[in-house]
Amino acid sequence: MLALSGVDLHVDEGEFVSIVGASGCGKSTLLRLILGLDTDYEGEVRIDGVRVKTPGLDRAIVFQDHRLLPWLNVRSNIAVALRHSPLGKAEKAERVDAQMRLVGLERFSDAYPAQLSGGMAQRVAIARALVNRPRFLLLDEPLGALDALTRLRLQNELLRIVRQEGATAILVTHDVDEAVYLGDRVVVMRPDPGRVATVLSVSGPQTHDRSSPGFIGLRDQVLALLGVAYNGAELSLAREADAREAAPA
């Protein structure tokens, strides 16, 4: 089964790109190709002109599930990402301390995952992804499992952290508002097979104000491209996709 077809996308250094689309349109597959986990495909993924063939420390990913190791505390869960780093012990400890400060978890360094809220656990996952100072931060629905209020707060935190670290971020999400709020550009994908429908620029400070006409207009444009009519109710593109897949052939 063909997952992606004709995807041609260029991402500039330091850019925050949001990729939005229904389930099954190949968003997560695209991240796996960039990460270097999947290599059986036609075409090329290049970084600075060099073809990606394997995973590397220049790329890191955060998943919807924080995937923390339950037997390790916050400090150790972040430090585990440095196991293949050539840094010395003292330098690794400094890196971990810096990342805990970055995500505001210094006071919870000895806490275990079971003692953390969902939002705190995701902040640990983000810190773990950034501790090697990757050039590219790949985000696969990292806030999708959180409650609405926590999700809004972490959107602001994520934007702050990415800007502060100077990383190039690529976010996959079903949430159109999230895509517009976080992205410098929004890539709209369609399924069967997964393909880029269009790429929209998010320009001007008003487009990052959820109540502004610029934000609302861009959000509605993305929804229209996805074939969804917005009527003020909460939208779930995942449910729409699941319903389509469940329909008889």
Automatic annotation (TrEMBL):
It holds the Pfam family ABC_tran. Gene3D superfamilies: P-loop containing nucleotide triphosphate hydrolases (3.40.50.300). Keywords: ATP-binding, Nucleotide-binding, Transport. Residues 2-216 form the ABC transporter domain. GO terms for molecular function: ATP binding; ATP hydrolysis activity. PROSITE patterns: ABC_TRANSPORTER_1 (PS00211), ABC_TRANSPORTER_2 (PS50893). InterPro entries: AAA+_ATPase, ABC_transporter-like_ATP-bd, ABC_transporter-like_CS, ABC_transporter_ATP-bind, P-loop_NTPase. Belongs to the ABC transporter superfamily. This is Sulfonate ABC transporter ATP-binding protein. It comes from Rhodoblastus sphagnicola. The lineage of its organism: Bacteria, Pseudomonadati, Pseudomonadota, Alphaproteobacteria, Hyphomicrobiales.
